[in-house]
Amino acid sequence: MLLPLQLHLTLPPWVGEVADTRRRYLGDEERVGLAIELARQNVARSHGGPFGAAVFHEDGRLVAAGINRVVPQTCSVAHAEMMAYMLAQQRLSSFRLNAGDNGRFILATSAQPCCQCYGATVWAGIDELLIGARGEDVESLTTFDEGPLPDDWIAQLERRGIAVRRDILREQARAVLADYGQGGAHY
Ligand SMILES: [Zn+2]
Question: Residue ranges of the CMP/dCMP-type deaminase domain (predicted)?
């Protein structure tokens, strides 16, 4: 048996139609709104779990988008936030997005990061984290386990220069989770 030496993760082409690289996404609601729309479309198309995320430059340009790809890619780390971070880092050729004079970066996510994506957020090089639904929404409306987070998880991020704002379009974000939870699908 050959030892695997390569990894290939992709987003489906429709993501490039929903996420518009020509416009500027200004303000928290436009940014989280895109993440929620990606989550909604991912469920509608049965392409993965009910989660979306996007990395923006401070000027409003979209750098990269992400959706949950765990089941289609057979990859437990392929969460929306991870996909968005990895694609943004590849696009900017920078493993820390805000390194040097790159500017400031924002991650918008349809739901509070799980323990894995929380850890990734510490190192990704973002300056702001914008969140739609809360972790308790994810766990009450679906069967997903968010994993253990430190009690002071927001303070830990803010100590590292990452501003956290949550409950942005929370009801819209909750609606996507509820649709998924009630649909009985698991992908
Ligand atoms: Zn995650």
Answer: 26-157
Q: Which residues surround ligand 1, an ion (CB under 5 A)?
A: 79, 114, 116-117
- Does the model's pTM come out above 0.85? yes
Q: Which of 148, 155, 151, 77 is nearest to 122 (CA)?
A: 155
Residue 30 CA to ligand 1 center (angstroms) comes to 21
- AA letter at 33: G
> Number of folded domains in the chain?
1
How large is the angle between the packed helices 80-92 and 115-124, nearest 10 degrees?
20
| pLDDT tens digit sequence for 45-77 | 988 899 999 999 999 999 999 999 999 999 999
Give the residue numbers spanning the domain of 109.
27-178
